[in-house]
Amino acid sequence: MSLFIVIAIIAVLILWIIGVQRKLVKQEELCKNAMSQIGVQQSSRWDALTALAELTKSYNEHEYNTLKDIIAQRTSINGASSAKDADAQENALTSVASRIFAVAEQYPDLKANENYAKTMDSVNLYENQVRMSRMVYNDTVTAYNRMTRQFPDSIVAGILGFASKDYLQEVASKAEMPSMKI
Q1: Cβ neighbours of residue 64 under 8 Å, at least 6 residues apart?
Q2: What is the pLDDT of residues 30-89, one digit of tens each?
Q3: Is residue 11 classed exposed, middle or buried when 0-12, 13-18 and 19+ CB atoms within 10 A define those classes?
Q4: CB of 9 closer than 8 Å to CB of 55
Q5: What are the DSSP calls for 8-63, one per residue?
Q6: Whole-prediction pTM value?
């Protein structure tokens, strides 16, 4: 009888460990998927910024070459990428975008170009999608990290090597309120 109770307790314990492991894997896969979505949106944004760089070519050759050099440093963000990788990519994207905006300010004809306006709309759309994807990633990481840290799931997470994930950092230049001077 006592052997039966010991076997039942071991079976329940094994089933519990399997259940926790499955929940951890599910959450980890959601984190990878969210990071991959960021990569897809950033890639689309890179393509739109590359098109804008091409439009600047006839206006300022030096700036065009600088932009192409920055764009050439682009890396791919996927499910295996870290928050640090995605943040670095976001900083590079912000750098390219601000340079293109500066060139457009110098050349009103460029700003008035219909292709420039359409491509800028695309850049803004992709920027909003990246912002939403970053929020989804951080929310997903919150749920995953909570599971890896809360008792008793943290015991299984530690034994099976599930470590906490880093959050995406806020882009400092976007945290400040823009000037509203006219």
Answers
A1: 53, 54, 56, 57
A2: 988 888 888 888 888 888 888 877 777 776 677 777 777 777 777 778 777 888 888 888
A3: exposed
A4: no
A5: HHHHHHHHHHHHHHHHHHHHHHHHHHHHHHHHHHHHHHHHHHHHHHHHHTTT-HHH
A6: 0.71
